[in-house]
Design brief:
Number of helices: 2
Largest sheet: 3 strands, antiparallel
Order of helices and strands: EHEEH
Bound molecules: zinc ion
Length: about 80
């Protein structure tokens, strides 16, 4: 399981969706199937299984925690 952090644009590659505050999870292949649930605004930063920084909206955070992919926010080291 990967740690999660409060969304921080500085963790993300400049010029990416995540760096501009959007939810990169729902724009990625991993989250595209649930894109109609996207709340739009990023609230969490996390590394995906490929160690790439991704951002997620509140819905993405819920889903990823449910599936055990990331830790609930605020419970990391
Ligand atoms: Zn989203």
């Amino acid at each position: 399981m990967n740690p999660s952090y409060p969304f921080d644009p500085e963790l993300h590659e400049p010029g990416t969706d995540a760096a501009s505050g959007r939810c990169s999870y729902h724009l990625s292949d991993a989250g595209r199937g649930e894109a109609d649930e996207c709340a739009g605004e990023a609230v969490v930063s996390f590394r995906d299984s490929g160690a790439t920084w991704q951002s997620g909206c509140a819905r993405a955070l819920e889903r990823l925690v449910e599936r055990g992919e990331i830790e609930p926010l605020g419970q990391g080291a």
